[in-house]
Amino acid sequence: MMDTPTLALGPLLHEGKAKRLYATADPRLCAVEFKDTATASNGRHQVRLPGKGKLNCQISSHLFTLLEQAGLPTHFRGLLGDGWMLVQPLRMIPLEVVLRNRAAGSLLRQLPTVPGQPLEPPLLDLYFKDDALGDPFLSEARLDRLNVVTSQERIQLETMARQVNSALHQALGRLDLDLVDLKLEFGRDGSGRLQLADELSPDNCRLWDQRQSPDSPGRILDKDRFRQGLGGLVDAYKEVSQRIQALGLKPQHHGSRVRL
Ligand code: ADP
Ligand code: TMP
Predict the structure, then answer these.
(1) Pocket of ligand 2 (CB under 6 A)
(2) With CB atoms counted within 10 Å of each terminal CB, which end of the chain scores lower, N or C?
(3) Ligand 1 atom with least separation from CA of 75
(4) From the alpha carbon of 88, which atom of ligand 1 is closest?
(5) Domains held by the chain: number
(6) Residue 68's domain spans which residues?
(7) Tens of pLDDT along 38-80?
């Protein structure tokens, strides 16, 4: 039997709360390791949840594949094995783009809204991605002042974010998964083209199980299980992963495994 070829990792480029990013011998590719940790309150509350990294990697690779097939450019370049994926390194734009299809989370604390109220068209909120400042909400004027995107790029970024949300909302809806909201990050490639980056997993979105009654805590299949101390996060992510497999997408495999 032939051994699976290995891919040697270069230096660790970034260690964040949920992932590690490594250089590889190919400057066009970075390796991303999904960690088994869950954090809340900007990293102040942290636990280890074995299996979570692998599930988030699987879910993300399927959803990036779905978006690529819909013609939306993403950084995903293939799976590398359990919990690892290859991505195109990008110059990241320090914005968190949040799309809200229903009222939940911080919106309920900040506007007089009914929990679960549909938001049509989806609400798009921008936050400055800066841990030290607590990822503050941005007004138009503050975004202008930050100077992290041109006005043309901002339009492109918002259009792409709405397309991503709409494609995911539709596809997940077919699996009885209600995409309540999600957070996206974008970066620019060498020629300045915008691409969707980071991850697409239940760590970064709210997913409600439409097969469960609206008041049941069992309908929460995302990181709110951890934020609200409900337990059962890994089982919930497994459920999401299994349903997404049913879409029949075949994320590209790089054909090698990581050599640490
Ligand atoms: P954080 O840094 O917010 O704690 P993570 O643990 O998820 O988050 O770390 C992943 C980091 O990698 C994030 O800072 C994210 O912006 C960045 N990133 C995601 N995709 C890419 C990419 N394609 N190229 C460069 N950086 C990326
Ligand atoms: P919010 O209700 O706390 O504003 O969150 C909206 C969505 O964004 C929710 O799906 C969780 C996600 N999110 C992140 O992925 N990272 C973050 O740092 C924050 C604040 C929210």
Answers:
(1) 98, 105-106, 135, 181-183, 204-206
(2) N
(3) 23
(4) 23
(5) 2
(6) 6-89+249-255
(7) 998 877 888 999 999 999 999 999 999 999 999 999 999 999 9
